[in-house]
């Protein structure tokens, strides 16, 4: 099949719409279920590249949760701690496969942003992973294969209309890519740069020790950034992205946005949050929304009389700003990648507040010395990799 007609483009008024191979070859995908749309395919193809590269770089199964052509989460298949199982809502599922752990991490990093995501998997989807997907609000999944059990589960989702795409793992795109904007054709070489540990060799700070676990996190941050709309930074820890700041015009705003998401990821692990007395019949999305409000500045929106009764069995105590700061101060050994250089040390000041210890960025700012000095003040390790990873 050389082309696939789509219902419409980015918006319902944008017709006609299709995907096709300009060279006359067959599309590298097969739709096994549902009818994916234009944005679904943008998410699927970007996400597939991300997880394919993560698997190649780390040797571990990888998963990504995409929304509007940027990842909300990305992770590799490391085991889940009891606390992570609880905050990712998979504690009732027993031992999970490595691929299922990867998706639980990718989906769970920023559950608010992952609501209605498109899923990308580096390995054939197994039954464990399909069971997690089945219970979440999601638009579809792309993978290089599906076990019969997994495919049966996925085909039953959304009354048989769930989008399931099979990708040919041997497909190699042309080295030159093109797109049109306002009738003008843009052309560029594909970004084929390989991301690995060698990119962390130029360590410019006084502290130069990067453990192997942090190297994996730095790899995750950079590969995630390679497929995130720029400007962007990515915080990573324990095999997953925990905060992604995508599409900001200012570097420090990227750092703040991603840092606040990393903070929220960690706040969800605080005892006060783990012990919230939710009503037994509360829906998963409502539970996520309530937690997001409870740990935020507008906590009274969920704790006010007449409101908390809709969510909780009893009124929870306020999680004060002081308590939240004390908890976040325990977050440590976080890795941070940036898709372009940090122009000022204020980015490092903000990163430190979210437990960042390891940093990788291109370098090349006229204020590199100031940025290095700020890292040294906090005992951080920073490497200059000399590469920019803008993606648009």
From TrEMBL:
It holds the Pfam family AICARFT_IMPCHas. Signal peptide: none annotated. NCBIfam families: PRK07106.1. This is 5-aminoimidazole-4-carboxamide ribonucleotide transformylase. It comes from Lacrimispora amygdalina. The lineage of its organism: Bacteria, Bacillati, Bacillota, Clostridia, Lachnospirales.
């Amino acid at each position: 099949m050389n082309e696939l007609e789509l219902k419409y483009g980015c918006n319902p008024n944008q017709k006609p719409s299709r995907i096709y191979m300009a060279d006359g070859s067959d599309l590298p995908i097969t739709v096994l279920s549902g009818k994916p749309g234009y944005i679904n395919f943008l998410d699927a193809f970007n996400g597939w590249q991300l997880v394919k590269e993560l698997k190649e770089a780390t040797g571990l199964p990888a998963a990504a949760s995409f929304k509007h052509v940027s990842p909300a989460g990305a992770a590799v298949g490391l085991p889940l701690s009891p606390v992570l199982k609880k905050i990712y809502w998979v504690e009732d599922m027993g031992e999970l496969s490595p691929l299922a752990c990867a998706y639980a991490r990718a989906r769970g990093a920023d559950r608010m942003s992952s609501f209605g995501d498109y899923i990308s998997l580096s390995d054939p989807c197994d039954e464990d992973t399909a069971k997690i997907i089945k219970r979440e609000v999601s638009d579809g999944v792309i993978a290089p294969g599906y076990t019969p059990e997994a495919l049966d589960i996925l085909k039953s989702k959304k009354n048989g209309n769930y989008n399931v795409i099979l990708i040919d793992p041997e497909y190699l795109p042309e080295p030159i890519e093109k797109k049109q904007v306002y009738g003008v054709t843009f052309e560029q070489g594909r970004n084929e740069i390989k991301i690995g540990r060698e990119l962390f060799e130029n360590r410019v700070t006084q502290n130069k020790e990067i453990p192997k676990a942090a190297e994996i996190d730095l790899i995750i941050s950079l590969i995630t950034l390679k497929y995130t709309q720029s400007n962007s930074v990515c915080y990573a820890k324990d095999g997953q992205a925990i905060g992604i700041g995508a599409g900001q015009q200012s570097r420090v705003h990227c750092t703040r946005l991603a840092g606040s998401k990393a903070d929220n990821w960690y706040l969800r692990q605080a005892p006060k949050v783990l012990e919230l007395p939710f009503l037994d019949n509360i829906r998963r999305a409502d539970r996520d929304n309530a937690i997001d409000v409870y740990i935020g500045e507008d906590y009274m929106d969920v704790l006010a009389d007449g409101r908390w009764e809709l969510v909780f069995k009893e009124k929870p105590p306020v999680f004060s700003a002081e308590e939240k700061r004390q908890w976040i101060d325990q977050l440590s050994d976080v890795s941070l990648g940036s898709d372009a250089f940090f122009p000022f040390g204020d980015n490092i000041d903000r990163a430190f507040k979210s437990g960042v210890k390891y940093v990788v960025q291109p370098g090349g700012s006229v204020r590199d010395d100031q940025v290095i000095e700020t890292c040294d003040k906090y005992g951080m390790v920073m490497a200059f990799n000399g590469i920019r990873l803008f993606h648009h």
